[in-house]
Amino acid sequence: MNNDIKDINLNFRCPADYHAMPDVDGGKFCSQCQKKVYDFTTTPAYVFRQILVETDNKLCGQFTAAQMAFRPLYNYPALKKWLSAATVLIAISLWEGKALAQQKDPGKQAMSKINNADSIAECDFGPNDPNAPDIYPEFLGGQKGLEGFLENNLRPIKGLRERVYVQFMVEIDGSLSEIKILSGLDENANKEVVRVLKMSPKWKPAVKNKKAIRWAYVMPIII
Predict the structure, then answer these.
(1) CA 41, 91, 152: angle at the middle one, nearest 5?
(2) Which of 59, 115, 204, 213 is found 20 to 30 A from 171 (Cα to Cα)?
(3) What are the structural domain ranges in the chain?
(4) Which is it for strands 35-39 and 61-62: parallel, antiparallel or unpaired?
């Protein structure tokens, strides 16, 4: 069965010079089409895939062939019902295996895999993966509870309405740790996202074989 994504339209005939475009947060600005052009060449593959979903595969940007060589992680049409124009968009979980748990800095080890565009399979954990937990971590109150928590605590930053991609660990006791900005905006926006997540009440941890386990969680937040 061919699982390749079929609805991406790639156009390589843009006459604009990317390197001559003025810099803006997260990429360049194209004066010909009057929109942001992203540089995805150093973006983790799973973040690139997530952005494709959020934009209905309509965006301008640089990317590598390796970033397109993937199988979809989840049923994207089902996930898109979670899209929110307010704060939370999509949450994607990444498995942290036993081998990573034995490392002194498992977060750093995990990110070294995620950032390798030629090792997409290493973070390609779909719902049928044997390493996936039986129960995924969840904010107390579910998706609506998480949206409400963020809406009530995030301080809007004037002039911004962009996504910050953040990763954190949901610990066995449900607390959040190792909060890291994967793809951010300016320093104020990044600090605000981290500040609010540090205030988060405990989550329901992931469960595997009836035991709570640590689980890395990646979430884009609009600020």
Answers:
(1) 115
(2) 115
(3) 76-222
(4) parallel
